[in-house]
Amino acid sequence: MTYLGLFALQHRGQESCGIVSLKDGEHIHHKGLGLVADNFTESELDRLSGKTAIGHVRYSTTGANLLTNAQPLTASLKEGPLAIAHNGNIVNAAEIRERLKKEGAIFQGTNDTEVILHLLARDRAERFEDRLTNSLSQLEGAFSLTILTSKKLIAVRDPMGFRPLSLATIKDPKSGEKAWVVASETCAFDLIEAKFERDILPGQILIIDKDGVKERQLPAKSQLAQCIFEHVYFSRPDSVVFGRGVYHSRKSLGKILAQECPVKADLVIPVPDSGVAAALGYSEESGIPFEMGIIRNHYVGRTFIEPRSQIRSFGVKVKLNPMSAILENKRVVVVDDSIVRGTTSKKIIRLVRAAGAKEVHMRIAAPPTTGPCHYGVDTPTKEELIASSQSLEQIREFVGADSLGYLSVSGLQKAVSAKPNEFCAACFDGKYPTELFGH
Ligand code: AMP
Q: Domain containing 400 — which CATH number?
């Protein structure tokens, strides 16, 4: 089940993966670099026996892509084995780490998650639950966690609720016994036919054991900061995130984009896959026909080796192929979810023109990305973000479009029904909700 869940969540991280299972009070682990499908053989899965497990797919925002940073991280505490899987980025981890090192702590890796293990090991409270609450209360930033001990499965969402985390139930087909499932996105529940129950609320700690589910609450923060980029790009469109279907959000983003940035054209085409739902919304709202004018090769993994220059540079063409049969002599609106450095849009526009398009109008279903994310999405530094220093006209010229339009911040909030003080849109509006990085 955990393996299948990770499979459904592969888009959240491709660098490393791992599973820890619990059998007879002991942990069994397997971790590796790369994709879920390449790391778990049938015999590995047989070895990971037991009735409870946690798993993780990693995409590094803190710490290098090394096996020591692959998760779940494991440790041995006074109660026995402990494993932890973390989504998000703890913004004061470096500070805590330095303090702990001065006090004599030895760190294995370079990631932010390991500080949780040390805080847990050092806290003097008698009961594990109290040590957990004390430790997590010291953290700032984003942490959706699953923790496995020798007896319990624990799920935690940070008090600002940056990253999603949902709860479901599943019935054993033979015994009819009910079991609990926790995952970052509901698409994992769909695959294993688990029934979505509810989101784990910001600041909630759920402690699940053979007696059922107990709840605890971390001290509240002044605002919520659910990541709006989960709806723009990160989550799978078939997931329900923060109580709202992602596909539905993306279509709304496209519809509002069509209202805010209209243009006369013959076709709307998406950049697959990230722009598909928004392009459908743009097409529906504008009445301009939708076509899959660019076809994506789905087999281009991270391991693709660019042939040396003796052959030629294929670049984005390996992955995306615009069809001249569709584009020849047409005025085309190209829709994508975001522009980061601007290089992808530039290449796509060049290819769409080479395939015969007469005019190319770029439309982006999010506002300009002007700041890096400190809460778990991998964005480059501010200097590398084209919209942090260039005007709309300069970006249009760089990407080579006839016109360029971005969604407004208010359009974005409207599309995902975001209430002020509930969402983080710092990458678009510069309002970082934590003290560290905040204004
Ligand atoms: P760029 O060429 O740097 O402008 O990248 C833009 C492309 O990257 C768009 O097609 C986006 O769908 C995609 N993208 C946006 N944010 C991310 C992210 N955090 N990780 C990976 N790809 C992204």
A: 3.40.50.2020
Does residue 378's CB lie within 6 angstroms of at least one atom of ligand 1? Answer: yes
Q: How do 331-336 and 267-270 pair as beta strands?
A: parallel
* Whether this model's pTM surpasses 0.70: yes
Specify whether the backbone of 140 is left (phi greater than 0), alpha (psi in -120 to 50) or beta: beta
Residues 6 or more apart whose CB falls under 8 angstroms from that of 33 comprise: 15, 16, 39, 65, 67, 70
pLDDT per residue as tens digits for the range 403-415: 999 999 999 999 9
CA 210–ligand 1 middle distance (angstroms): 43
Report the mean per-residue pLDDT for the chain: 94
Angle in degrees, CA 19, 21, 23, rounded to 5 = 165
* Residue 168 confidence (pLDDT) above 90: yes
Instruction: Specify the ligand 1 atom closest to the Cα of 344.
Output: 2
Instruction: Quote the tokens at residue 85.
Output: 């899987």
> If 0-12 CB within 10 Å is exposed, 13-18 middle and 19+ buried, where does residue 192 land?
middle
Question: What size, in residues, is the chain?
Answer: 439
Q: What span, in angstroms and rounded, lies between the C-alpha atoms of 14 and 9?
A: 10
29 and 169 in one domain? yes
Task: With a cut of 80, say whether residue 65 has pLDDT above it.
Answer: no
Q: What is the pLDDT of residues 362-372, one digit of tens each?
A: 999 999 999 99
Q: Note whether 189 and 246 are same-domain residues.
A: no
For 194, what's the count of Cα atoms within 13 Å in the CB-facing half-sphere? 26
Residue 313 has pLDDT above 70, yes or no: no
Q: How many structural domains is the chain composed of?
A: 2
Question: Which residues form the domain of 47?
Answer: 2-221
372 lines ligand 1 (CB under 6 A): no
Listed in sequence order, the residues at least 6 apart from 364 whose beta carbon sits closer than 8 Å to its beta carbon are: 257, 335, 336, 337, 338, 339, 404, 405, 406, 407
CA atoms of 42 and 49, how far apart (whole Å): 12
338 close to ligand 1 (CB < 6 Angstrom)? yes
Decide whether any atom of ligand 1 lies within 6 Å of the 387 Cβ. Answer: no
CATH label of the domain that carries residue 52? 3.60.20.10
Please say which residue of 192, 221, 250 terminates a domain: 221
Encode pLDDT of 184-239 as tens digits. Answer: 999 999 999 999 999 999 999 999 999 999 999 999 998 999 999 999 999 999 99
Structural domain includes residue 437 = no
Segment 105-122 shows an average pLDDT of 93
438 falls within a domain: no
